[in-house]
Structures are given as C-alpha cells and as structure tokens.
Write a structure and sequence with these properties.
Elements (H helix, E strand, L loop, with lengths): L8 E4 L3 E7 L2 H6 L6 E4 L7 H8 L3 E5 L1 H12 L5 E8 L2 H13 L2 E7 L5 E8 L2 E7 L8 H5 L1 H9 L2 E5 L7 H13 L3 E5 L4 H5 L1 H7 L5 E5 H10 L7 H10 L10 E6 L2 E7 L2 E5 L15 H14 L4 H15 L15
This protein binds adenosine-5'-diphosphate and magnesium ion (2 copies).
Length: about 350
C-alpha cells in the first residue's frame, strides 16, 4: 500500500521565505505591482523586502508554493511520507525554513548555495488581494547535479508520486523533465501545478515540454485562462479549458490525464476522458478567513496526499478542499499551525 511506503511523495520547486505584510495603494504603486499578481523580481523590486520589514511590520513565514504543498501533504499522511527538493542559501532564512519544515515533519533535501541568499517572496496584502514578488536567489541555482546525486536520486527511485510546482520551470526545466520521464518510464504518478499565470504565458516552451507527462495538472482559474490565451484555445470557458488540458497528448498511455481547476469559492472543475465533474467548495464563513494565500497550495496538498493514499478522485478533491479550508483559517500558507513567524 503506497501510504505505508517511506517517502512515497517527492516534491520539487523553489523554497522561499515569505515576507508578508498589510500594504496599501502607495506601496503597490511605488514598486509598480498589481494588487493581485505573482511576479519575479526585477532589480527595482529588490528594496521592497527591507521596506516591508522596516516600514510595514512584515512577518516571516516559510513559503514557496510546492514547499507549502509538501508540508500540507505530510500533515495528511503517516510520518516520513514526503520529501521536498529545492535550493536555499547558507543563512538565517534557510534556518527558519529548516525549523518550519521540521515542525511539519517534512524531510527536505536542499541544495545549499554557498554564495546566494535564500530566496524571498514579498507578499503585499491589500484587502482581499495579494501581490507576490519573488527574488529566487539561491532557489534559482537548483541543478540537475543535485537531483542526480546518488542520495537524492535514490529518493526519486523510491517515490511513487512526483509533484512538480510550475514555478520551477523558471529555474531548472531539466530537473522537472527528469522526474517527468522517470514517472512515465515506471508508470508512476506525475502531478504538475500551473502555479501562476506568468508560467503559461512566459514559460510556454518548458511548460509544453512537461505537458505530455502530466497525469494530474492542477491550476486555478486565472492560470487556466492564461493557458488558454497563450495556447490559442479560443475559449474563456473554464470547463472547456480543463477538457483541453486533459486531452493533450500523453506519454504514459496507462493513465488517463486528469485536469483540476480550482476557482476560489466557486466549484472545482475536474476533467478526464472528455467528461467534466464539478465539486462545490467547503463553505466557510467570511469572518473565519484569516489569509487565503496558499489556498491553492493547500488544495494541491490534500489532493496529492489522497493520491498517495490510494483514494478515489472524488475523495482526493474533497480532501483538497478540506485542507484548503483549514489553511485559510490560519495565518500564512500553511495547513496547520506551523508558521515560523517572528
Ligand atoms: P489559489 O490559491 O491558487 O488562487 P483558489 O483560490 O482557487 O487557489 O483556492 C483553492 C481552493 O481553496 C478552492 O478550490 C477551495 O477549496 C479553497 N478556497 C479558497 N478560498 C476559499 C473560501 N473563501 N472559502 C472556502 N474555500 C476556499
Ligand atoms: Mg484564488
Ligand atoms: Mg495557486
């Protein structure tokens, strides 16, 4: 039974420290940010991190999309079920990440860069919106050498399910492809997250290279729309987009692809074999919502933990929505109270 296998789930992406604060229009304007967006930092954005810490009482929270997913999945599974890979620096920020993942019982195998600092994600909250600006730094130096090193590759060979966050396509597409191909070759499960609208838009080629390997592709409505536009699907209908994602050519013919599109409080759309299912989200009173950052990461965590435990598709979706609901009641993108806030 997969659930009892040690480190059955292996996740790859960019470990980041979130520097999160309540902002305002002026702050967004100062750095040219949209209120609801996720971007990579340009040089003019770099001062925002100190600005947030010094002038906006920012808190530090362990982040990074797939690292949140990995923590959440470990929360749902027996001990020693999940391992996470990515690149960090040799600094106090990495120490905070180590502390947070340890509390979650998540095993990490970080590539430690001797020169670059740990990556940071500035999270500016204005009302119900959040704007994220990421300086990848050490995370950007993840490489195939780390993945293929004997100790790490042994974990790859031992895992049954791989989860790759789309953000990693800006870093090391060959690492994503190595996991994708390993999954297809051994009929293991490859789960991919679209991560952000800019991935389908600006990283179309590496994205399309991974597409044939997706057994499960997970995204939200804005990512689905960005995919449709950048790929000329000629529709803004989320169900049609989900169907199109599910119907893309597939490397491993032994598994039917499933496309899962979440839409905040609107029903989750699931497409497979030309069929659409809709799943209502778990309702929660607005007063109980603390922070919706990472709702999608938590959904992916619950969903993927379900796959690892051999649950049905409907159960996996339900478990994803359950964990997302739990997560948005906490501060920061964590499924449980495992923040490293200061
Ligand atoms: P992302 O964080 O990637 O934008 P979504 O906003 O689509 O992802 O949220 C993912 C899932 O989180 C939803 O499908 C739902 O299950 C849950 N969720 C998000 N916001 C709410 C909410 N306000 N109430 C209840 N569930 C929510
Ligand atoms: Mg959303
Ligand atoms: Mg998301």
């Amino acid at each position: 039974m997969a659930a009892n296998k040690e480190f059955a789930l292996l996740c790859l992406e960019n470990p980041l420290l979130d520097i999160q604060a309540q902002g305002d229009e002026n702050l967004l304007k100062k750095y040219g940010l949209k209120s609801n967006d996720a971007i990579l930092a340009s040089p003019e954005h770099i001062p925002i991190y100190e600005d947030l810490l010094n002038n906006y009482s920012a808190i530090l929270i362990a982040g990074g999309g797939a690292q949140n997913t990995a923590r959440g999945a470990q929360y749902m599974l027996p001990p020693n079920s999940v391992v996470y890979l990515g690149g960090v620096g040799d600094d106090k920020y990495a120490a905070i990440l180590h502390d947070a993942v340890k509390k979650a019982g998540l095993r990490v195998e970080y590539r430690v860069d001797p020169k670059e600092p740990t990556g940071r994600c500035g999270v500016v909250i204005t009302g119900h919106d959040r704007s994220m600006v990421t300086d990848l730094a050490a995370a950007n130096h993840y490489d195939l050498d780390h993945l293929k090193s004997p100790e790490v590759w042994k974990l790859v060979e031992g895992a049954e399910v791989y989860f790759v966050g789309g953000y990693h396509l800006t870093v090391c597409p060959p690492a994503a492809m190595a996991l994708a191909e390993e999954a297809a070759k051994n009929n293991k499960t490859f789960v991919f997250s679209l991560s952000a609208p800019f991935i389908p838009q600006f990283f179309k080629d590496p994205l399309d290279a991974t597409a044939p390997y997706w057994d499960y592709v997970i995204g939200n409505e804005t990512e689905a729309l960005s995919y449709a536009e950048s790929h000329g699907l000629g529709t803004k209908d989320i169900k049609e987009i989900a169907k199109a994602l599910a119907a893309l050519p597939k490397a491993n013919g032994k598994r039917d692809r499933v496309a899962i599109i979440t839409q905040g409080t609107e029903p989750t759309i699931v497409a497979t074999k030309g069929e659409i299912s809709e799943y209502k989200v778990h309702a929660i009173d607005a007063s109980q919502i603390n922070d919706t950052t990472g709702a999608g990461d938590a959904f992916a965590a619950g969903f993927t933990a379900g796959l690892v435990a051999g649950k049905s598709l409907a159960q996996c979706v339900d478990q994803g929505q359950w964990l997302a609901k739990l997560s948005i009641q906490e501060l920061g993108p964590s499924a449980v109270n495992i923040n490293a806030g200061t």
